[in-house]
Amino acid sequence: MSTKFHSELSQDISLLLNDTDDYNVIIQIGEGKNTREFRAHSIILKIRSPYFKSALSTKWVNQKNNMIEFKKPNIRPTVFEIILKYIYTGEVNLTKRSGADILGLLIASDELLLEKLFRHVQNHLIKIQTNWIKQNYIYVLHTVFNLSSCKKLQDHCIESICLDPQPFITSEDFPSLDKDILYELFKRDDLQIEETVAWDYLMKWSIEQTPGLGSKNNDRTKWNDNNYKALKETLSKFIPLIRFAEIPSDDFFDKVRPYKAVLPHHIYEELVLFYYKDTLPKSITLPPRVGRVKVESKLINPKQANIIACWIERKNEKTASLDKKYKFDLLYHSKQNGFNINTFRNKLFNNQGPCLVLFKNQQSTKIYGGYNPIGFMNSGGQWRSTTESFIFSFESIEDIQNMKISRINNNYHSYAIYDHPNYGFSFGNTFYMNSDKRIYCSNNGYYDGNLNNVLNPYLNSNFIPEDIEAFKITTT
Asked: Options 3.30.710.10, 3.20.20.70, 3.30.565.10, 3.10.450.50; which CATH number does 6-120 get?
């Protein structure tokens, strides 16, 4: 039986970090006034970093008096200090480091092929440095956008902006945003923004980005044909991303029509037909954004919230435009409020109006839910009538293709909702939460024939939910 002393070995090797006798590499880090020399051992660098293994093995490496001299001007000294400690000790402490240093560490660890450190730093930025990222979206995106290895951080930034774009688009740095990043944002269906606002800020960005315009020439009454031609070129790839059919007619007249010259002629003519004759444009067929639905949920994404809103309006969830704006206000979350039926009832049973309940299955990725348009009541046991309630399921938080819905049968709308003190909620005793904290599923015939698909595989069975959310739904 062998005995391992890894901790002692690690401690002894870490002593080499401050050894001033046996080093054979001098690394000059940074540039200008922010420059610092680090001493290291080539054997340690080569073993720990594939980058250094290659860089220090080449015959082209600069040597002077048997000392290897190496320069890395693109890494800040404060960042390389963290890297060198990691290389020698396997330890990294980011607690008191600035967001800029941590982002620099991410880029440097990627370049130096320190994969484990890279993954750790990327996860740290996403989980711990959330607020700093929000305050520095443009700096972060410009730093990582073209690095495929940083896709996880890119996606985090883009998705966070989509949920709350207002601070981002109104920031001072927005006009300097790279066009490819803006394109990535505007092409998304889950950008939570009104289309008129999207058009306004696209124009502000485009004017600033167009040569000959910008802050020195932003009065369009003074523009010549060449100015409009240049602006049209800047806007060309973005025009197909604008959902013009979502822009109200008065906003079209005041904000889009004045820029008629920058729109392709056939698109402008289609828009005129749309606003005068209600003929949908043929060239611009993108679905509406889900910006008309505001929700913060751990169980559904904004696209799924938009689907639920379409179901509420009895519209095609893939192509329809919503008539109203929806806000899903979280009333109850089991991971915050505790899984308690009395707490659940206290949060929901106070004339809250239309409500949505969501449940994550403990044994799968599946999400179940129900919409109650008349709200829940405290009663001793009472059937309540509505023709608009429905039960639904998504295969996962990402699913927008295989969702299922079952509506109350017209002949049984008097049995749509059942209020009882022993239940957290009950959709016609078909889908309900009992006092034993289980979700029960059965088919009493009150909901339509698609119920079996919605509740599969728990029809005539029950399950313990992993997570529960309940929302009050308001519209404007």
From this structure: 3.30.710.10
